[in-house]
Write a structure and sequence with these properties.
With 101 residues, the protein is mainly alpha-helical. It contains 5 helices and no strands.
Length: 101
């Protein structure tokens, strides 16, 4: 058995430190998420609803502007996108000369 323990310990030493850093960060994110969710559970539901709405609107406008939405939302974004500016249309308008000199 001691031989197996030494080889397992040697294998752990061969794992790059970047992996351990990423694993520690993942654990920290999970702990922080649990902490935040517990705090949000005590919050007024109207304030929580407004906060969630604002976050979803910001994400939606980011998807429309950059056109990097998830694939399953592309048909919906194709219908909504013409009403809002996007990165491509803004760049084209900046590249064309002004109508009146």
């Amino acid at each position: 058995m001691p031989l197996l323990a030494v080889t397992a310990l040697e294998r752990l030493h061969k794992i790059p430190p970047q992996f351990w850093l990423k694993a520690a960060m993942a654990v920290a994110v999970v702990v922080a998420a649990v902490f935040v969710l517990r705090k949000l559970a005590r919050l007024n539901k109207v304030v929580l609803g407004v906060g969630v709405f604002v976050v979803l609107v910001i994400i939606g406008f980011s998807w429309i502007y950059n056109r990097n939405e998830p694939r399953f939302l592309t048909p919906l974004m194709n219908k909504i996108a013409p009403f809002f500016p996007s990165k491509n249309t803004f760049a084209k308008k900046q590249a064309t000369p002004a109508d009146n000199p």
